[in-house]
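Reminder to self: keep the SMILES exactly as supplied, no canonicalising. Ligand is fe (ii) ion.
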Amino acid sequence: MKLLTAAAILSSAAAFAPTQSASRSTQLMSTIEAGVPERVAPDAGFMPDWEDRPGLAPEEFMQSDMGKPDLSGMWECPLTRWDSEGINVAEAQRMAKKVPHCPMEVRASSADNAKGAQYFADNASQIKQDLLKYGAIWFRGFDLMKSVNGYRDMYEALGIDPCLDPLHSSGLRKFASERDALYEEVNKPSLRGHYIGLHCESTAKRTAAYAAFVCFQKATEGGGRFLVADGAAILAEMDPKVLQKLYDRKIRISVSNLDIPPSIPGPLKEGIKNLVDVAVAPKFDMDLEMIYEADGKPGRLQAVESAESPINRHPVTGLPVWFNNAHNHARKLRDRRPCGVPEVGMTEVFYADTMEPLSLEDCQEIKRASEKHITALSMEPGDVLLVDNYRALHGRDVFQGDRFHAVSWFTWDNEEWRGDERRIVEKNGMNKMINGMMDWLPKDFESNQS
Ligand SMILES: [Fe+2]
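Structure tokens returned for the bound complex:
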């Protein structure tokens, strides 16, 4: 395979960035098992009311403060801090049971609003303590964060440093305002009907320390609740037998499928595998292994992450937490709820020891325990959800109409955990062009964002 054409590389790249039109034609094919299960909207334990607070017009909320420095050269997303050896599951559940309800809610008074960014500067230390205690804080009704520049004032007042999204290197993450280190959430109309299950913004390799999700415009025609759930509460809730099994066997997640005609001769199949491995996988900055037919489909090549523990101790508090993306990525759950992802972008979760997909029973227990602890937030303009990304998981419900939510990721405040890598702003023309073309391809990786 020494003659690699750009087209070949990009057609392989397309495996990681499926097309919109494919999403319609392959939706019905998204179940490998016999029979197509019914799709049911997932549950949520808590559902606060909408309040219909007004926002600003897009030309107002998108304004950046050009007097502030350009933050495009932000920190790299830090490496994942795994601490998962020797966990006693029963003891972990006892510890996790003691946590208070997540998220904590902070509602702006008129005095708070009058203070603007000073409110966050004055309360930064308390807010950081509360974030460790509750896992997430929902700031409601703050006028300051109704715009991009006010949102940046908020995180600067808190003294937290933005970093790249863990999947930034794929070129598939879009900025809402690059100079403010602000990414768009999945607002695009083609993914309105796609439910994004619970996940941390994390790969086995990189994990952001914190996130601040902001609403500038809620969905104009309904839906679009932002989901948050405490990983400690999910851990405490889960059937101990399922938890022990998953902890003992570990999990592996496949992030993309490339279906090769099964009749292709073995050596050529190996060549395709090597091509994808060499040309495309490194763009994702994940430890991916290319594996044929792990889910049983003839000719299917899957890009599979390394084995990881489904439970991790929080890097600061040591609290054991359900820390994995199975609720979002398990195929048996996706096949049973609104899912707009074409076959090429369908994910799966495997038991790491045998590479068998998770059983339906285990998926259903993950779903039950997770959804019981979901708070489906009614986020409105100016609302921010500050999240400890090692503790609370997030997602978003389907929506109708237009929506504009955005998110910044944050790194650690100590050098050792943060590392010293900063973003290298891409100046290489060829890479820029390939990223540009990949960006043009509609993207499924977005579906793992929210
Ligand atoms: Fe996300």
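Points to follow up:
The CA atoms of residues 138 and 251 lie 31 Å apart.
The pocket of fe (ii) ion is lined by residues 199, 201, 394, 449-450 (CB under 6 Å).
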